[in-house]
Amino acid sequence: MSAHMLWYEEVEDDYEREDVQKKTFTKWINAQFAKFGRRYIEDLFNDFRDGRRLLELLECLTGQKIAKEKGSTRVHALNNVNKALQVLQRNNVDLVNIGSSDIVDGNHKLTLGLIWNIILHWQVKDVMKNIMAGLQQTNSEMILLSWVRQSTRNYPQVNVINFTTSWSDGLAFNALLHSHRPDLFDWNAVASQPSPVQRLEHAFNIARQHLGIEKLLDPEDVATACPDKKSILMYVTSLFQVLPQKVTMEAIREVEMLPRHTRVTREEHIEVHEQHFSQEITVSVPQGPSPSPKPRFKSYAYAQAVYVTSPDQKRRQVPPQFSETVEQKTFSTTRMGSEMDLENYQTALEEVLTWLLSAEDALQAQGDISSDVEVVKEQFHTHEGFMMELTAHQGRVGNVLQVGSQLLTTGKLSDDEENEIQEQMNLLNSRWESLRVASMEKQSNLHKVLMDLQNQQLAQLADWLTKTEERTKKIDLEPLGPDLEDLKHQVEEHKAFQEDLEQEQVKVNSLTHMVVVVDENSGDRATAALEEQLQHFGKRWAAICRWTEDRWVLLQDILRKWQHFAEEQCLFDAWLTEKEDAVTKIRTTGFEDQNEMLTNLSKLAILKGDLEMKRQMMSKLKLLSQDLLVAVKNKAVAQKLESRLENFTQRWDSLVQKVESNSKQISQAVTTTQTSVTQTTVMETVTMVTTREQILVKHAKEELPPPPPHKKRQLLVDSEIRKRFDSDTTELHSWMTRSEAVLQSPEFAIFRKEGNLSDLRERVNAIQREKPEKYRKLQDASRSAEALVEQMVNEGLNPDNIRQTSEQLKSRWIEFCQLLSERLAWLEYQNNIIDFYSQLQQLEQTTITAENWLKAQPTPATDPATVKTQLEKCKDEIIRMSTLQPQIERLKAQSQALKEKEQGPVFLDADLAAFTSHFKQIFADMHAREKQLQTICDSLPPAHYKETMNTVLLWIQQSETKLSMPQVAVAEYEIMEQRLRELKALQSSLQEQQKDLNYLSTTVEDLSRKAPAEVSQRYRSEIEVILGRWKKLSAQLVEHCQKLEERMTKLQRFQNDTKTLKKWMAEVDVFLKEEWPALGDSEALEKQLEQCTALVNDIQTIQPSLNSVNEVGKKMKTEAEPEFASRIESELKDLNAQWEHICQQAYAKKAALKGGLDKTVSLRKDLSEMHEWITQAEEEYLERDFEYKTPEELQRAVEELKRAKEEAMQKEVKVKLITDSVNNFIAKAPPAAHEALKKELDVLITSYQQLCSRLNGKWKTLEEVWACWRELLSYLDAENKWLNEIERKLKATENVQGGAEEISESLDSLERLMRHPEDNRNQIRELAQTLTDGGILDELINEKLEKFNTRWEELQQQAVRRQKSLEQSIQSAQETDKTLRLIQESLAVIDKQLTAYSADRVDAAQVPQEAQKIQSELTSHEISLEEMKKRNRGKDAAKRVLSQIDVAQKKLQDVSMKFRLFQKPANFEQRLQECKRILDEVKLQVPKLETKSVEQEVVQSQLDHCMKLYKNLSEVKSEVETVIKTGRQIVQKQQTENPKELDERLTALKLQYNELGAKVTEKKQELEKCLKLSRKLRKEINSLTEWLAATDAELTKRSAAQGMPSNLDAEIAWGKATRKEIEKRQVQLKSISDLGENLKTVMKGKESLVEDKLSLLNSNWIAVTSRAEEWFNLLLEYQKHMEAFDQNLANVTTWMYRAEILLDESDKQKPQQKEEILKRLKAELNDIHPKVDSVRDQAMHLMTNRGDHCRKVIEPKLSELNQRFATVSQRIKSVKPFIPVKELEQFDFDIQKMLEPLEVEIQQGVNLKEEDFNKDMSEEDESTVKELLQRGDRLQKGVTDERKREEIKTKQQLLRTKHNALKDLRSQRRKKALEISHQWYQYKRQADDLMTWLDDIEKKLAGLPDQKDEQKLKEIGGELEKKKEDLNAVHRQAERLSKDGAAKAVEPTLIQLSKRWQDFESKFAQFRRLNYAQIQTVREDTTFVMTETMTVETTHVPSTYLAEILRLLQALSEVEERLNSPVLQAKDCEDLFKQEECLKVR
Question: What's 993's DSSP letter?
């Protein structure tokens, strides 16, 4: 890069803001992640440290998947970041000074730099690469700026010249958007916004809403003085991407012509392209102050990533103490040239010399070179910055020297000035040269030391790499194994190796920022050599890292395989042992009975099945061993595994032979104990069981390829062909197993009628699509097998295993292809079935629609039009149904084709037959309805009947309409007369319509004789309704005429009364409106009051007449039309309102007149009292004169007038009350009565206001006089105070002590006091003149003024005399002060000189002459001070001088003390303080050594710190001893001010050193012990934690599957092994606890840190072990359930074997023996049923709750059990027993007995009985009916006679029909009972209350004495009268319930209640003969009630009974009609279902 920059390349450090970049870059990254659904980052610096999120970002940008490290250590993080850097290098992304360690360490600046490079590549350059190529430009930033300027050219407010400050006001963004999208917003509105933040917010929102650009920037971050350049560049690039991208060359040239800025760069960038890594290394070239013969040096920054094969550089910043801007440091030559004068030269020289002094101090402050490489690097970079600083100021020094030379050559200076400038230039030049040489020497020394230290580091790294490489080679040579424990030990050793690698990683990290030092001659060669060396180290380090990772992966893989093989081996061994024991326990001879033989036979069959299912385990073990051997490659391991497999093979063969031998022995036993038939049966059973077991395991066998035959010895063929063959074979078998699992799915075993087979078809098609590829894989495997066989033959090995495996693979492929073809054909056939059922479903739906339509049709109507419409619709439906018959025929043909094509499902014919039957039934029903509708249509009446009917109905309707109108309502009298004439005319028209009515009656009588009953009934009902309406209409006409005549008479009388009342009220109103008399006229008011009283009396007399009119009007209003009623109501309302108004006015006028009279008297009284008070106040306060001679009199007069004013203000309330009262009174009276009172009120108010005004004026005048007096007094007080101060000041200055300054101050203060203004004195004279002119206090005022003036003049004269005296005292004091000042100055000079000597560490021995001079001066000053003190002693005014002399003497003593200190050694105190400082620093660091953590890194750092302190104490030891020794000498010689204090300090220093040494040594021992224990504890905890994590992960993996595991035995074996491992690990946990206890003793107060780790480990231990225990217990529970299920299943199976044998034997035996066997088997079947159900429930429970694998194991067994048990049960039940005749007769009797009560209850119909309310409508006979139906079913199966079977079936159908009908009736009755239940319970409660009352009253009546108590009889009679009403209420309630259908329910209770009432009446009649008259009265009432009651009873009960009889007769006629119908006249075998429906009772 050149030394200058273009204007648009701003100094990035000035315009880079880390906080803004972090936010902006985070938003950009999250926007990229959002595109791919990745998780957002939160902290840019922390989230990228492990490298994972960085790789995810590169995956999103490149579209490629990048592998990530699995670990979480620093090594893994570095590898991840290195991968990312390599990806960036491959994509040509610039990476300068950015390394992986910077990102992992979270370096903010370099992390932001990395992200910016990524954004620059994928955001900026990718977007602009096309336009850059088109314009042939490489500077993307210039193109982007050209585009912005070109776009914003038309916006004068915008001038974009950079990507920083030009954007801060927000106008540029808005202008850029508006130039391309002017439709989005108004530019002027945005430009006028006052805030840049608002404009920026607007632009960003517009871009996000309309352009889809994320809001990457925040307005607050841009609206600053220095916005972030990179953030703005990124955002503008986003705009460039979505907006039109048009840039012209003119715009680019315009940008190039813009003015440029200059900048001095501090380093040059040189790109060094490295061949392998393409690194970019930054070379810093220090610029020397001036050319020098010494070589220049270069510094290269290398990062630790060199050692992990990736570049990693980090930049160094110049220390802040040297970082000053160029503008501040550069000396302006222009200014020097234009203003070349001496003054400017001196200023510049002083600036340069000041800087030189600071630079010399900075160089000296750098200190000595350290021996620590990191510290030396820091010193090197610090000094490098210092050298750059010198370079920057070299020009300034040269400019000053140049200006000095120019000044010398001008000749305008004097000789002295020229000599001075020459000396200054020489001094400047010499100091500059000295500084330059010293800095160069410092740089050379630093370079040398740094190179030596770095070479030592590289040598150490080389040694470590060599040792590690040898170690890895040694490890590679060691074989793996040969046992599992050995392998685990090898894994632990590799973990230790990884820990060593991590520790070395720390050392590698210390090589960061390696500095390479070379000279100019060999610079490139040295750089190349170092680069080559570092590359070599990097490759070796990377190789070791890769080897470590690969070795770890290999060990983990082998360990996992070995553990898996060991688990499977243990499980198989345990299973073999278990089965061997089981075979041993099976007996083959000596059976006690047949059951024992069958039990052993069942066990043997189950064992065979288990052997078949477990055969695949042998193959699995062999495959696992092969995989393990391929990975291990150890012959010893191979021999071991082969011997184990050989042992398993031998045991397997032996077990199979034992099973076969036992089978033969059982067969021989069967031969000896059973006949040949039985033997055959048993052998068939054995064969059947074995076959079933083989079928059960067939699916399991097909999952894996058949195992190869066992070989005595297998040798490994380690070749690529064998690996490829094994891989292809395994892949093919796995694929075929997965595919067969799909093809053998249970879904293929069932044909479906409907459903979606797309998923199943897709899976089969996927297999079909994969088949060609797998076939090619099969061919590859075959070729590999051939090549492998040939190779093995050549090597002398047996290739049979390979051949057999290949042949088995081919045969399995053929079977698989055949199965696939079958499944494809099945899918096609299944699709045809679904199509068939789809069509059948459509037809069925159409049929059901027709059936629903038929059911929804109403009963045939009687209206001709409706009947015809129904008939037409029925015919349309029949035609539509007829069109379905061709489709049905086609469906039958399709069904036949499906049956012929393949063995189809049995439900095809059944479903088709059911549909055909259903269709025929619906079709027949439609024809029947068509016939019924046609019959009804033919029997309808003629058309003339309908016309006549309509005419009559129309006339009746019109007449009813007329009568419904308010014909008889009250209206206008003329209207009512008209209505009466209309009613008379309507009566005449009624007679004329009688002829048509007679015709209709005759026609209905003729129609009823020939039409159906329902139709005739309808027409009869219709004519009866018309006749009823006719009679009603006639009666209404007569009634209306009578009512209308009566109401016309009432209306006429009402109108006359109303007129009379209105006339009277008008006359009264005239009286009330007369005017009132004047309010003051009392006589007139009394006269009007008497007249008003008479009017009130007349009103009370007329009130009854008004009430009568209102009553008549209200009655007429109820009978009137609404409109006329409103008129009546309005008239009444007006009449009453007028009446009320008259009454109110009368009463109000009476009250007003009375109140006015009283109010007039009261007001006049108040007015007279107020007038009297006003007169009295005027006389008392206003007409009296006052004289004021004293202030007290004046004050009393003011207070008196103030009280008078307040009293007047209080009277204002009373005046206001009077005014309000008068105004209110006037407002209520007529205007004529206002004048008198109003005039009198105005006079009162005027007088009151005048009084108040005069009082107020006089009071204000006195107030002003009083204030004037108070002001005069205040001025006099102020002036007197001033005079007092003058007097005090004169006394104070009589004898002033002190020097000239104090006397001068006293004089100044007196003069200031005398400069008092004359204003107050003038004001006093004016105020006094004002008061005396008014004659107020004149004598007192004159006296005070005279006294004041006299005192003022006297004090003025005294002050003038005192001023002159003070001026003389000042002159004498000044001489003494001058002498003391000279002595002070001399002492100060001496003090400064001694201080300088002390600072420069100069003592008296070094400058003896100066010491002698100082001593003489001090002696002279001491003598002078003593003389001055003697002269001034005894003088009163010399106290101040004496004090000054004392101060000078004290100063002299201090200087003398310094002089004495000047005589002792100079640097002792400094050395003492330095020692103290070092020890104090160590003391401050000691508390940091307290153990605060158990982490070994923290403890190690503390130990390092402790060693550093230990080293510091060792280094300072000698200096402490020297200081103590010297100090003791000073104390002895008394060369210090305080020897005792110095001695104490020395003693404290010694004690402090000893104490610190002991503490540091103690802490060192503690930390070393803690580090040792923490390392061991961490290692043990990590080991145990890893085992717990592995165990937990294994538990999670094994328990992840739902339900029972697939291999329960293997899981149990694993659980047992885990329990043993837990026991072993328990010891390790105890060891860790012991370590923790030991570590606690070391921690001392920090035990909680250890406790936390141990508690966490214990909690993890408890969690994992408890979880393992729970899993093991669950497995044992699974095993227990499966064993119980197998045992129960075996018991049931054994019984079924024996039952089948007995059934087979019974076929050949006699009937009696057969019957006995059958009974025994049926009994056993009943007993075994619960066991089978239990087994089924157990199986369902296991299949439901124990997972899919359990279902796969149990479901075949359950299916076989169900099938066999059903077969055995069917065989047992199919043997038909003998049915006795008696049993048939009993069944007939029972069913007939059941039908009779059902028929009786059906006859009841829906009429309710009391039981329907009192009991729940539960079906108590449900169980009896069900039992009878079951008996019938059983009898049907047992009866052989077909006729009897049909009879039983018919009776069952009849019983079922009757029972269903009864259930419907009960449901209806229950519904009706619920509806009226409230009325029923109310009725019952009332009746029960009456019955209870009758019981009580009878007891009361029976308890009467023989002498009848007349009072009690009356009481009983009274109660009887009251209860009669309750009795009537009960009868009314009963009548309502009877109407609702509960007549039979209420009848018993009502009859009983009536009977009881009559009995009580007869008994009570005997007691009523004593008083005949009373009894007669009661008798008459009772007769009336009873008559009424009996009337109700006789009209209710018989009517209900007759209604019931009529209903029964009607039902009988309907039944008879149905019995005679054609449907029931057909043959018995025809359509029984329709006949049954016809017979059902509606």
Answer: T
Q: Which of 668, 667, 662 is nearest to 608 (CA)?
A: 662
Residues of the chain below pLDDT 50? 1-14, 260-339, 520, 523, 671, 673-718, 1437, 1817-1818, 1969-2002, 2026-2034, 2040-2042
Distance, in Å, from the CA atom of 416 to the CA atom of 423, rounded to the nearest integer, reads 11
Q: Measured between alpha carbons, how far is 218 from 1032 in angstroms, rounded to an integer? A: 94
- Whole-angstrom Cα distance, residue 1114 to residue 1132? 9
C-alpha distances in Å from residue 738, one per residue of 100, 706, 741, 772, 2004: 46, 16, 5, 16, 79
Distance in angstroms (rounded) separating the CA atoms of residues 502 and 104: 15
Tokens matching residue 1114? 């209200």
Token output for 1849: 């079936």
Contacts 24+ apart (CB under 8 A), 1532-1538: 1535/1463, 1535/1464, 1535/1465, 1536/1461, 1536/1464, 1537/1457, 1537/1460, 1537/1461
Residue 1247 and residue 1174 in contact, taking contact as beta carbons nearer than 8 Å: yes
Q: Which amino acid, one-letter code, is at 1593?
A: A
**1077 secondary structure, DSSP code:** P
Cα dihedral 358→364→369→375 (10° resolution):
-40
Please, which residues bridge with residue 939 across strands? none
Alpha helices in 1184-1234 (DSSP H): 1191-1228
CA distance 817 to 1680: 41
- The helix/strand/coil state of 262 is strand
Which residue type, as a one-letter code, is found at position 1209? Answer: M
Coil vs helix vs strand at 972: coil
- Structure tokens of 1228? 């209520």
Residue 1184, pLDDT score: 58
**Most distant CA atoms of the chain, gap in Å:** 177
Helix (H) / strand (E) containing 300: strand 299-300
Q: Which helix (H) or strand (E) holds 299?
A: strand 299-300
Q: Which residues pair with 1120 in a beta bridge?
A: 970
Contacts for 1628-1632 with beta carbons within 8 Å, 24 or more apart?
A: 1628/1580, 1628/1583, 1628/1584, 1629/1584, 1629/1657, 1629/1658, 1629/1661, 1631/1580, 1632/1577, 1632/1580, 1632/1581, 1632/1584, 1632/1657
CA dihedral sign, ordered 124, 130, 131, 136 = positive
For 590, left (φ over 0), alpha (ψ -120 to 50), or beta?
A: left
* Helix pair 1647-1706, 594-632: axis angle to 10 deg: 140
What is the per-residue pLDDT for 1146? 81
Given the DSSP bridges, would you call strands 283-284 and 299-300 parallel, antiparallel or unpaired?
Answer: antiparallel
Do residues 1334 and 1324 touch, judged by C-beta distance below 8 A? no
* Phi–psi pair at 302, nearest 5 degrees: -110, 150
Beta bridge partners of 4: 262
Taking the C-alpha atoms of 866, 872, 876 and 882 in order, what is their torsion angle to the nearest 10 degrees?
Answer: 120
Residue type, 1170: M
**Helix 676-703 to helix 1647-1706 angle, to the nearest 10 degrees?**
140
Nearest to 1058 by CA among 1102, 1130, 1109: 1109
pTM for the model:
0.32
Q: Give the pLDDT score at 708.
A: 42
Residue 1879: Cβ-neighbour burial (10 angstroms; 0-12, 13-18, 19+): middle
Residues 863-882 as b/e (b if ≥16 CB within 10 A, e otherwise) read eeeebeebbeebeebeeebe
CA–CA distance, 58 with 50 (Å, rounded to integer): 14
* Cα(1277)–Cα(1282) distance, integer angstroms: 9
Secondary structure letter of residue 514 according to DSSP: B
Give residue 1177's pLDDT. 77
Residue with tokens 């225990």: 1669
C-alpha torsion sign, points 788, 791, 793, 798: negative
Q: Are 1772 and 1722 in contact (CB under 8 A)?
A: yes
**What is the signed CA dihedral for 1756, 1762, 1763, 1768, rounded to 10 degrees?**
140
Q: Is 171 in contact with 38 (CB distance < 8 Å)? A: no
| Rounded Cα distance, 96 and 278, in Å | 11
